[in-house]
Design a protein that fits this description.
There is one protein chain. The protein is α/β, with parallel strands linked by helices and about 325 residues long. The protein is about 50% helix and about 10% strand. It has one domain: Aldolase class I (TIM Barrel, Alpha-Beta Barrel). It has an 8-stranded parallel barrel with strand order 1-2-3-4-5-6-7-8, surrounded by 7 helices. The longest helix has 18 residues, at about 245-260. The radius of gyration is 20 Å and the shape is globular.
Length: about 325
Amino acid sequence: MATIAPRRDSAATERARELLRTWDSRLTLGGSALGSLLGRVTPVDQVGVEERIDSLNKRSIKRESKLWALDLAIRMMDLTTLEGKDTPGKVRAMCAKAIHPQPGDSTIPSVAAVCVYPALVTDARDALKGSGVKVASVATGFPSGQTFRDLKVAEAREAVAAGADEVDMVIDRGAFLRGDYLTVFEEIIEVKDASDPAHLKVILETGELETYDNVRRAAVLAMAAGADFVKTSTGKVTPAATLPVTLVMLEAIRDFERQTGRSVGMKAAGGIRTAKEAIQYLVVLYETLGPRWMTADRFRFGASSLLNDVLMQIEKERTGRYQGPDHFTLD
């Protein structure tokens, strides 16, 4: 009679157990199961979150502070092009703008990164060489994530091999929403390992997670699996980034750092189009996490149309006059 060999755990499962044992000791959990970790995630007070955002949105900002915030917003931007019609030429033009957002004005800083599809990473890397602007690549079957795990891992690895400094992966929202948290957890671990030494941003796609409680739970799951950043959205789903969702994620980051000692960044992506909105996000960031997070190393804007409005507002604050949109290069 044939015998059935015992099932061997995957490398991801072993890594998951190792990480959970680590969090078990740091968080003083009763057990090392992933369910025990997520069981400690506190519910979100929806009314409290939305009232907090309403309160923060009423803050008035002085001119000097506004100029500082607009400058910081540029430094925190990931200029993004993620269209099927993207070409090497379009990427090179975007990279030129990323380095010098306002040609002829050396006081305007470069952006943090340029985000492209994996096949265009090499073009972005070459165009940004020596600039200090990082290359970010989406991966793992962006934006849906509906492909095989080995392809997701391979895509992340190839993006880094092509020169990506950062990898933006999407979680398996289907697995998450049906409660299969271990699958999501293991997949993040595998992609994180494949992306080394690049930084990993984990996209939650909050518009598909349905509740603030799910957003908080997904953020904790991603951070526990090793995410360097948690990111709101792909920009392909409505709603994308919102201030209440951002507050929920920032509070999860704050609590996670308090419990584990590990700092994780955040990226708000999709739907942020005006300088006024960007400043509102920075106010929420400062009031939730404080001055240590007011840096591109810990907070990013995923933007394809925000930069020009910020440049227009800077010009208005400096001169008292608005310039027309055609005064600036196209994004």
